[in-house]
Amino acid sequence: MARSKKHSGSRAVVWVILVLLIIGLAGFSVTNFGGRIDAIGKVGDREIGVQRYARELQNQINAYSAQIGTNLTLAQAQSFGIDRAVLQQLVSTVAIENEAAELGLSAGDEQLRAQILTIQGFQGLDGKFDREAYRFALQQSGLNEAQFEETLRAEIARTMVQGAVAGGVVTPAIYTKTLVDFVGERRNFGWTALGSDALETPIAEPTDADLQAFFKENEADYMLPETRDITYVWLTPDMIVDTVEIDETALRALYDERIDEFQKPERRLVERLILGAGAATARARLDSGEISFEDLVAERGLDLGDIDLGDVTREELGRAGDAVFGTDEAGIVGPVDTDLGAALFRINAVLGAQVTTFEDARAELVDEFALDRARRIIADKVDGIDDLLAGGATLEELADETELQLGQIGWSGDTGEDIAAYDAFRAAAAAAETGDFPEVSELDDGGIFALRVNEIVAPRLQDFADARPRVDSGWRTAQTVRALGEQARALAEALKTADPESLGLTLTEASDVTRTSFIADTPPAFLETVFDMQPGDIRVIEGATAAYLVRLDSIAPPDPDDADLAAQADQLAEATAQSLGADILQAYSSAVVKRAGISINQAAVNAVHTQFP
Predict the structure, then answer these.
(1) Please, are residues 167 and 579 in contact by the beta-carbon 8 Å criterion?
(2) pLDDT at 602 over 80
(3) Cβ–Cβ under 8 Å, residues 86 and 52
(4) 3-class DSSP state for residue 460?
(5) What average pLDDT does the chain have?
(6) Phi and psi dihedrals of 332, rounded to 5?
(7) Which residues lie below 8 Å from residue 17, measured CB to CB, with a gap of 6+?
(8) Distance of CA 83 to the CA centre of its chain
């Protein structure tokens, strides 16, 4: 029953999306094709409708555009293979619909009606099905009721076939157990790290030949990234804030707008416990020491968070304000009548009134006013700068004729200083190409910029002379780790017959370590090596800056009481079942397509493409 409900809910979601997609592409009419082309192809006896292909293609373009943060054109989408993927998916979908029809599967009228009634897009303000809303939505999409209901019947039938093929797949228990045993198997081992301070013999000074050879062997580490030589102009509020004239009247108005920040009345940090008729008795118990305030709160089935009023003013406490604000000491007040009945108040802190005069706040107000004014000034300049660019002005001329400042940068993905610290500039720099027309763009602080890519320099090997300091450091580190590795291997051999202490070693003991554990300050291959060992094995692992000595003591099976591992087993079983179901459905779809046969009208596909920007 649970499975049935889950599948039903999934189908409902699919149908809602289907309706929204149909409505969302309203206006994409077959009349654009002269009324002669209704389909882009067929699978078996079932057509792939023009509008259906257009909807799916538009939907996928929109989804991909949202992922990369920019609107894709059709040409760009085609370069990513989106159109081919959409067509392939539609062919598989329509093939199963064709198969369902051949099998005689169809949704009955009652089932169809029930599903239409649940679609939110067809409901009125009262949440019930509205026939006028239904009719209007379909009219807007260029469909009539018969067409839509036929599509919905096919969707239901296809879902039935897909559910029958992919549903009910159960992961074999032995498979799940094998995975869990692999993931949950535990290791107990001792280990130690040998750093540069453990080096017995200092590393000799490198010769020029040593460094040249190391540089050649590790060229990938000394590659410079693609670099864009960019000329830019920019203007930020900070650049012109000192030139802004300060309007005293505007400052006064700003102060008045923020008066609640600058003039705060006396306040109390208060907790309120409503007790009603038992308030006086409760106060007497408190005064006698019979019970604490915290225990009194607990007797009411509450905790302190339930009664905490926080930071309140006299007015906010209403009738209890005078009593609570009638003392300057922390403690218990009451019983006090409130709108909710008699209550006890505990004052935890007394906060005096805070008054910041206009004169004291002026410096802060000036900064805010000047920056806001600077942003407005810059915003007002955008149209004029756009006009200059449209008129053929270069960035250098803009810098001469306006307050924009000219700059030059060799930008790559890891450049993050000055203007390159702004996300908007980084995005524009990454997207721009040589020859692109400079455009004004906004920075997140209210500034503006425009850029021109002069040259794109491909990734290249850094000159040895420039890289020499890094090469020297890298060579020394590599030689140190190599020497430490040799020391560690000698110790590993000795450790087979001697105690660690006799060798001057202190091993860190690690227990119940699994493949998903984390051992701080170890290289990536550390645990992989440990789980490749057998009890009694001793291995040496060379890391980036140290050598590691590991002795495996024992192997233990997964912990049967590990709740997290049990949950992971369930997740593995479910994920595997879903994966198997998807593979089975894919194989079935391919077989159905092959059996039914397909034909694609490329002219119709091209006609659809002409409707996209």
Answers:
(1) no
(2) yes
(3) no
(4) strand
(5) 85
(6) -95, 135
(7) none
(8) 27
**What distance in Å separates the CA atoms of residue 559 and residue 516, rounded to the nearest whole number?**
14
Confidence tier at 512 by pLDDT (50, 70, 90):
very high
CB proximity list for 78: less than 8 A, separation 6 or greater? none
Per-residue CA distances from 563 to 202, 262, 566 (Å): 50, 54, 5
Instruction: Give φ, ψ of 226 to 5 degrees.
Output: -55, 130
Total H helices, total E strands in the chain = 23, 19
Q: How far apart are CA 271 and CA 340, in angstroms?
A: 14
User: Could you give phi then psi for residue 140, rounded to 5 degrees?
Assistant: -65, -30
In angstroms, how far is CA 343 from the centroid of its own chain? 47
Q: Is the peptide bond before 335 cis (omega within 30 degrees of 0)?
A: yes
Q: Of 442, 457, 375, give the one whose Cα is nearest residue 411.
A: 457
Other beta carbons within 10 angstroms of residue 213's beta carbon come to 13
User: Across the strands, what pairs with 351?
Assistant: 267
Longest dimension (CA), the chain: 95
Q: Which of 164, 170, 2, 179 is nearest to 574 (CA)?
A: 170
Whether residue 51 has pLDDT greater than 90: no
The Cα–Cα gap between 414 and 226 comes to: 10
**What domains does the chain contain, in order, with CATH numbers?**
2-168+591-609 (1.10.4030.10), 186-220+466-556 (no CATH), 227-245+367-458 (3.10.50), 266-352 (3.10.50.40)
Residue linked to tokens 């555009």: 65
Spatial separation of the C-alpha atoms in residues 465 and 467, rounded to whole Å: 6
Q: How far apart are CA 580 and CA 591, in angstroms?
A: 17
Angle between helices 82-102 and 563-596 (to 10 degrees): 80
Query: β-strand 39-43 against 46-49: which pairing, if any?
Result: antiparallel
C-alpha 4: how far from chain center? 32
| 100 burial via Cβ count (<10 Å: 0-12, 13-18, 19+) | buried
Tokens of 97: 């619909």
b/e per residue, 554-584, with b = 16+ CB within 10 A?
eeeebeeebeebeebbeebbeebbeebbeee
**Phi (first) and psi of residue 532, to 5 degrees:** -100, 0
Residue 538 — left, alpha, or beta (φ > 0 → left; ψ -120 to 50 → alpha)? Answer: beta
Specify the DSSP class assigned to residue 298.
H
State which H helix or E strand residue 312 sits in. strand 308-313
Q: Please, which pLDDT band fits residue 580 given cuts at 50, 70 and 90?
A: confident
Detail the DSSP E strand segments found in 186-278.
186-194, 223-224, 227-235, 263-264, 267-274
d(CA 345, CA 272): 5
DSSP string, 109-138: HHHHHHHHHH-GGGB-TTSSB-HHHHHHHH
532-574 per-position pLDDT tens digit: 999 999 999 999 999 999 999 999 999 888 888 888 888 888 8
Token code pair at residue 141 = 């999409």
Eight-class DSSP state of 214 = H
CA distance 73 to 82: 11
